[in-house]
Amino acid sequence: MIEALRGLGYNAATALADIIDNSISAGASTVDLRFVWDRESSRVEIQDNGCGMSASELDKAMRLGEKNPLEERSKDDLGRFGLGLKTASFSQCRRLTVATCGQDGLQCLRWDLDQLASGEGDGWFLLEGPEAGSEALLAPLENANCGTLVLWGVLDRIVTPGVGEQEFLDLIDVVERHLGMVFHRYLEHPRRLLLRINGCPVQPWDPFLTGHVGKPWQSPLVSPPGNSCIKLQCHVLPHKDRLTVSEFDSAQGPDGWTAQQGFYVYRNERLLVAGSWLGLGQGRSWTKDEAHRLARIRLDIPNSVDADWKIDIRKSTARPPAALRSWLARYAEDTRSRARKAFVHRGGAPRLPGGGEVVQSWKAQHFSGGMRYRIDTDHPAIRAVLDDAGPLLPQVKAMLRVLEETVPVQRIWLDTAENKEAPRTGFSGEPSDEVVSVLNVMYRNMVKLKGMSPAMARERLLHSEPFHQYPELVAGLPDLY
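Structure (tokenized):
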């Protein structure tokens, strides 16, 4: 059974997160992870300064399934099945040693899967004390005189054939990024939790760029009707153009911008799901794509709804109950729509400070056969040409129709997918002189030929795409008489 449990799907990072859950539940404010490279004798140590365990509590903690998941638990408990310490550890190593300093002083028990496999009969041999020759490894715990130390030895799932010291160091980087994400709400307050890897503090990774001035939108906290224990907050992150290089690299998270979109499900502020649409969608489940990569939704649930949300042993999946799916989908749809606009318009979706409508040069038309794009003839630049076309009007209309029917939709879609970035529009990256040159042509046409007052002409331009993004340049247009 134990050999079968090793295949639950943990990796080193998720397994260590499960061990740290136990430390937090034990009231630890400091957790030290030590990765020690020694080829086949390499090991991983996890030490905390929590309350420790008595002899009977340690014996119980080392049992498989020592806790009934149906029992009521403390609201701060991060566990559920009573399997995490064992299954997480066995997924990475064959020798698990747990030492603790509690009310009965220093206690130590260990599982050794090799001895268990080679033992005669059907006995389960839980061994006392550390492995012979490794007694010195308990010294840090003895010196601290409190807390718990977990030792992983015989790392057959980490130090596999061909793995060298560099691969071991690379693993540390992966673990650090994952733990900084999973426990970021704890790590943001060092007095609450200090997590170190080989003596270096793990930095929290905030998926939502809280407080960043470039964020186009963030919703207030909301709860479903009649259930105040569940809280949701929607976020649209800033476009790349609104971030520094370091902010952009950091905000993409461990798995990249596209993979990190979606819901972030927390239980007791511990992250369970880091970017998923939770099987929601209209008709079929939403997939992760470039257009919605700026959408991230924070969702907090209590541990009392684990069964309803189908939380698994690894605490890495969650499925919302049927009663909440439509409520969640409604907020997710709104967030996805806003994120798509921010992505397409490079963080500057058409809007004015006063909430006025912006006249766009293109509009999307939905019809029974799908969707098509048409030039908006009410846009000032286009209307001016049509009004003054005279005998050329049929040719101008034919030209516009050709442009509408040859919009390179597939090419734009492919380029966006390959470059992971929307094409630049709205004079993005162009010098201001280029914008002013076009503005002057339109402005003179409005004032000299259409008879508008300079103030009215400037107002029309300020409400037209893409000039709504350049209010200073519009305001600087001279009065013409």
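Residues 362-475 form one domain. The chain has three domains: 2-201, 217-344, 362-475.
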